[in-house]
Amino acid sequence: MESFCFNYAFNLCWILLLVTQEYHSCRLSPGCQHFPDTNTYSCSGRIWKETKFDNISMDDRINMRILEMCNVNQETLNLHKIHTKFPNLINITIWQGNISSITNSFLPHNQIKVLQLRNLKIETIPAKFLSSLTKIEVLDLSGNSLQSLDPKVIEEINRIPFTNLSNNQWNCSLNLEWVALLNTSSIPGAKNLTCYQQPYQGIPIIPIAKFKENVHTSCPERCSCTMYDVLRNPKNFDDLERFIEVNCSNRNFLEFPPILPDKTKTLMLDRNQIRSLLPLINNPLYKDVQDLDLDNNFIDSIEDLEGSSWFINFRVLSLRNNQLVQVPTYAFDNALQENPSMPTGVTLFLSGNPWKCDCSFIPPFQDLLRKYKSQVQDVNDIKCSPVEGDKKSPMVIVDMPRSAMCRLPNDYAVNALDLVNGILASLIILILGKLAYDYYHFKRTGRLPWIVTKIP
Ligand SMILES: *[C@@H]1O[C@H](CO)[C@@H](O)[C@H](O)[C@H]1NC(C)=O
Ligand SMILES: *[C@@H]1O[C@H](CO)[C@@H](O)[C@H](O)[C@H]1NC(C)=O
Ligand SMILES: *[C@@H]1O[C@H](CO)[C@@H](O)[C@H](O)[C@H]1NC(C)=O
Ligand SMILES: *[C@@H]1O[C@H](CO)[C@@H](O)[C@H](O)[C@H]1NC(C)=O
Ligand SMILES: *[C@@H]1O[C@H](CO)[C@@H](O)[C@H](O)[C@H]1NC(C)=O
Ligand SMILES: *[C@@H]1O[C@H](CO)[C@@H](O)[C@H](O)[C@H]1NC(C)=O
Ligand SMILES: *[C@@H]1O[C@H](CO)[C@@H](O)[C@H](O)[C@H]1NC(C)=O
Ligand SMILES: *[C@@H]1O[C@H](CO)[C@@H](O)[C@H](O)[C@H]1NC(C)=O
């Protein structure tokens, strides 16, 4: 430590050495002890009453440089009053006790260089009290009950060469704009300050403040965005994974919002009028979206997702009550097989769509639904689109017998190509028949067919 001090950062290091020096241990019984050689007064108990501050000679008071107090049984701390009593103090250390607020400031022209208010229950720091400390070099506020700091207080703290703010009760539910103002070179432990309670308990406040700022500034208009959790990567302590939910339910969106907070995991876009899924594969902001609720929109195809990395990495995809008629079963199967969250992490909802129950789509679709029965949560509600004029209720696709599916009413609707094929086949039969008849007729009567007599 000493050689480090001589090499560089001399001032800060000198201060650190001072702060870590031994000091008189706390007196158990209330009262004060005077150490004339160091001009130190070491007290415990209730200030004024038990410490008998009033019973000290004038000379002693003027000469006093260091005041230590512990086990302070008192809720408020009046530094102005102490300073009036001991006008030449340079070092005040008050630790352990139930002081929760600081009233009053020091007098102007004070000589205070070190102020340690440690392991008390201080809840707020008044900016005025700090601005009165013009000579201060070390401020230790560790182990208090601070939940937040006022930007004006940060301004004062940033001009102090060394401040310790550790072991407080930083409340990360509150506005964290103050965190960005902290000067991390004058607050060596700033990077280690952590959120005290849920959410984000034990996570450093500096990244949390940055994440919250991003969630706030890039939340799509009309939506609400929340960072509901932040976890440490067990393999790399500094790597934080955030969980962001964006709620755009029922907000009249015609398409996917163009912006999203970084690392959005859950996106609720149900009850809108969205038709296209293309932004999921084109907009890089969507690459981390894993839980997507698109119920009650106008999506009529998921073919855009075919072969995309989004389709391989999603966890929840809810497409209830859209306009899906068919899905590319082969691509669906491939994507699910490659999905790293399979089998337990993948959930799908596909009911309420007008599925087209024809002979070519249903067998592979049925295979798909049966194969992924535990992922498709609403498999027993996925039904054929109701046929006009058919009074029977639509069939549940996964239960349809193979024999039934190709004799459904809409299969009788012959398509145009089939019609052409049919006509051509009957024409061939007709011509062959006529040929046979003509041949037979010629053999019997020797008369050529009428058409041959007309050919010159
Ligand atoms: C201030 O007082 C504290 C506690 O008594 C002590 O540890 C520290 O060394 C003192 N600093 C100075 C500069 O006297
Ligand atoms: C004040 O201190 C003197 C001597 O230090 C002592 O005799 C006297 O009892 C003290 N008075 C009180 C009120 O404690
Ligand atoms: C402050 O703490 C002491 C013990 O350290 C306790 O006896 C006292 O009742 C507390 N005072 C208040 C007002 O809470
Ligand atoms: C941050 O603190 C360092 C060391 O005390 C100081 O040199 C620097 O000017 C401060 N920066 C700001 C922006 O306050
Ligand atoms: C700040 O205070 C805490 C608790 O009092 C102590 O453990 C820590 O070492 C201090 N940090 C620095 C940088 O001195
Ligand atoms: C933290 O702040 C939130 C929001 O203001 C508040 O509801 C909560 O009670 C605070 N936590 C504590 C421990 O005071
Ligand atoms: C911050 O915490 C890390 C790990 O707990 C520790 O190594 C480092 O010394 C701390 N820094 C300060 C300035 O307290
Ligand atoms: C999303 O927002 C809507 C409208 O504010 C609300 O009704 C709904 O409960 C929210 N959903 C969730 C999951 O928070």
UniProtKB/TrEMBL annotation:
Keywords: Leucine-rich repeat, Membrane, Repeat, Signal, Transmembrane, Transmembrane helix. Gene3D superfamilies: Ribonuclease Inhibitor. GO terms for cellular component: plasma membrane. InterPro entries: Leu-rich_rpt, Leu-rich_rpt_typical-subtyp, LRR_dom_sf, LRR_TM_domain-containing. The chain crosses the membrane at residues 412-437. Pfam families: LRR_8. Residues 1-25 form the signal peptide. The keyword Glycoprotein does not apply. The keyword Transmembrane helix applies. This is Protein singed wings 2. It comes from Pyrocoelia pectoralis.
